[in-house]
Amino acid sequence: MNDVALTPTRPNVVLILADDLGYSDLGSYGGEIDTPNLDQLASGGTRLTQFYTTARCSPSRASLLTGLHPHQTGIGVLTGDDSPVGYKGNLNRNCATAAEIFSANGYATGITGKWHLAADAHNPNDAWPTRRGFDYFYGTLTGCGSFYNPGTLVRGETNIEHEAQDPDFYYTDAITDEAVGFLDRATAQNKPFFLYVAYTAPHWPLHAPESDIDKYAGRFDAGWDHLRQERFERQYELGIVEPGTSLSPRDPEERAWDDTPDKAWQARRMQTYAAQVDRMDQGIGRIIAELKDRNQFDNTIIVFLSDNGASPEEIPHFERDTFVKRTDIYRPHTRAGEPVQLGNEPRIVPGPENTYSSYGRAWANLSNTPFRMYKKWTHEGGIAAPFIIHWPAGTVQEGRLLRHPLQLTSVLPTLLEAAGIDPPTEMNGNPVPAPEGTSFLNLLRQGEGKGTRPARHAVDAQTGTLYWEHAGNGAIRRGDWKLVRTFPGPWELYNLSKDSTELDDVVANNRDLAESLLADWAQWADRVGVLPFGRIVELYELRGRPAIEAAG
């Protein structure tokens, strides 16, 4: 444990993660969804306009909690064990989590919500949060599921799925309830706390209380084409997008709204998605209120972000027969015994417990305004995310837009510097690597200059170069230049200072630069343990499974 005095001036940390929330969904990022509590944090803190995730839920969570690239932690795709050909899909011991570090330095630690970092979600093991530094855990081990009757619901290491039998149970509210309860207990201990609130909203299925859905009646009737343009114009007014930015065209696989049948059903899908986001924001408001009631608000670092871009995934995900066997994420009957209607078709009106649907590619295209592509891809639409940080006592600038390109590997170093904690060189007797990112605390306080506090970090972090790989999709950003590909296709090159929405591939005119970037990316991939995705695809084909399942 570091020699750090346990005084009331040490900041608390509340880290809030949304699931599959698009870049533009929040009001403070241009959306028409009501998010007053998050917008309040944005106006009182700093928003990042070029913050990047890893493109997918499990890898993003691994990177967020460790400061490493996900491949280094054992989470290369999702949490399926594909070893030895692929990744183990299990948070390994060659990394230290934020909870382990904060706990070792005198913090109370808790998590409420989604974990999704353990290959075995049913039997307690070293990859469970209770064994990775968290004093308290309430939530789900699996990646998604019913909001009314979630699978793998656990308190500590005990399955408590029976608690969801309460007819008033709604998972988003339960995550908030447990977060507020943790804050109540932690403040009574008179010690600083680290709380990780991992909502499953607005990931599918589209489940939300009818009262919240009704609130959005008519709001999306104009359709995705008109609403994308409106969001883009608001983003320009807010300063989220800069002059010269072009709105990407509607996804070519989707119809124009005017040509779309079943408009009422389509609007209902987006209404339900909005209601999920709205309910999450209401919960965040309750967390804020608890912090204020406990006189902890000003000295609590509140971070809010999404784990990746919006999701275009249709339901059922993969083959129907395979999907319905996943009882950890799909319940074939409601708690009252009624059959659950699975799929995206107009006869299934999303929202209630007896439905299981998603909102689809066209609405995800709206959520990711102004970008193209989605969750899983390393184009901007898959990796760009809203990021809000609020800390009045730490002099984080109010109402500021920070345009510095940053990614998940820098979040933990920033939080540790704010708390006066050095990254460890070992944890529980195991050596752990230095964080891949560097703290951006000084940027939040003073501008785009260098920090003065020495930092222990990996050599690549010093260059300012950012790297990605997920399911064969790869990217590297050096300055304004970004080399990116969709597996197994060719590499594309974009100058983001002129083309932030990646519409003009200039690789043909910049071959030498592209080769230099590719060489840099390949060296990084070898160093952090990226495995050839084609091998994992071959593994699934040998198992007699569709190649698409290799990506999770």
Automatic annotation (TrEMBL):
Molecular function (GO) terms listed?
arylsulfatase activity
Q: Which UniProt keywords apply?
A: Hydrolase
Family annotation (CDD domains): PAS_like (cd16025)
Indicate the segments forming the Sulfatase N-terminal domain, all copies.
11-421
- One Pfam family, please name it: Sulfatase
| Gene3D superfamilies xref list | 3.30.1120.10, Alkaline Phosphatase, subunit A
Q: Which family does it belong to?
A: Belongs to the sulfatase family.
- Which named protein is this? Arylsulfatase
Recorded source organism is Arthrobacter globiformis (strain ATCC 8010 / DSM 20124 / JCM 1332 / NBRC 12137 / NCIMB 8907 / NRRL B-2979 / 168)
The gene is astA
